[in-house]
Amino acid sequence: MPANVEATVTANAPKEAVWKVLSDFPNIANYTDTVKSSHSTSEEDFEIGATRHCELAPAGSADETITDIKQGESIVISVSGAGGGPIKESMTTFHLEEVDAKTTRLTMSAEIHPKGGIFAGIISKILERRLPKRAHTVVKDLATSAEKFA
To answer: For 134-150, how does the pLDDT look when each residue is reduced to its tens digit (9 = 90+)?
Structure first.
């Protein structure tokens, strides 16, 4: 049973500024403290199939792959190889919506498949309680970083 998590924030920045930060795929650690370090693990930095490795805060790691891009609108990231945590794999979507020329609504949604065999349902419920705060931190940090470009 997957856990579903969603967080939405409004950035005081045009959509292009938010997209600029989001499309710097290898360098997520530059804008959020939820990731200690990150780097590209593929020749491509921002196209379908591009990969990165993230060392997470406070602990753990994740290998991530871009599985879909709608230029200037959304990016879908598959997460696997989540070391040190209860997550087997997940699919995360970042979606941008222009509110007006200077404001962008940013939504992060994730479908998370936990480890745990017969306990996966219980772990899923725990993740749904704990991860919204972390998701909100990521999108808020992204918005704050984009506001610096505005």
So the answer is: 899 999 999 999 999 77
Separation in Å, CA 52 to CA 37, 83, 91: 10, 14, 15
> What angle do the packed helices 120-149 and 15-22 form, to 10 degrees?
120
Structure tokens at 130: 């704990």
Mapping DSSP onto H, E and C, the string for 17-65 reads: HHHHHHCCHHHHHHCCCCEEEEEECCCCCCCCCCEEEEEECCCCEEEEE
CA–CA distance, 25 with 117 (Å, rounded to integer):
32
Whole-number Å distance between alpha carbons of 130 and 67: 25
The third-level CATH classification (topology) of the domain covering 3-24+69-149 is: Alpha-D-Glucose-1,6-Bisphosphate; Chain A, domain 4 (3.30.530)
Q: Are 138 and 7 within 8 A, CB to CB? A: yes
Q: How many CB atoms lie within 10 A of CB 81?
A: 13
Q: What is the pLDDT of residue 117?
A: 75
Cα distances (Å, whole numbers) of residue 148 to 42, 79, 130, 139: 28, 28, 29, 15
- Give the domain ranges of the chain: 3-24+69-149
Mean pLDDT rounded to a whole number for the chain: 91
With a cut of 50, which residues of the chain have pLDDT below it? none
